[in-house]
Automatic annotation (TrEMBL):
Organism lineage: Bacteria, Bacillati, Actinomycetota, Actinomycetes, Streptosporangiales
InterPro entries: Anti-sigma_ant, STAS_dom, STAS_dom_sf
GO molecular function, one term: anti-sigma factor antagonist activity
UniProt-listed PANTHER family: ANTI-SIGMA FACTOR ANTAGONIST (PTHR33495:SF14), ANTI-SIGMA FACTOR ANTAGONIST TM_1081-RELATED-RELATED (PTHR33495)
Coiled coil: none
Pfam families on file: STAS
Source organism of the structure: Nonomuraea fuscirosea
STAS domain: residues covered: 3-111
Membership in a protein family: Belongs to the anti-sigma-factor antagonist family.
Name the UniProt record assigns to this protein: Anti-sigma factor antagonist
Amino acid sequence: MSMELRHQIRNGVTVVTLDGRLDSETAPRVQQDLRALLPGEGQVVLDLSGTVYMSSAGLRVLLLIYRHAQSGSLRLALTGLTPDVRAIMDATGFLGFFTVVESVDEGVEALTV
């Protein structure tokens, strides 16, 4: 199974949806695609509701995106964490890096306040 990225702009916030598996096979392309999609500044919601699996390679992609956001003035929120992905991120301490919201709408609202 592959990974598909879609993006849209909602109220000035870039929303990137990841559908599929974020693993060692898909991570390099996802990382490259995300870097191209993410603005240097502004707000981004990453919608992981369609991410059915995330390996350590996927966590590394999220860490690199987090560092990218920290190096500029990019505000980032995650939504749609499945119980498995949330458990992995919680166990590794990754949840603490991100604003985690329940929906894309909530993420857009949280980032535009």
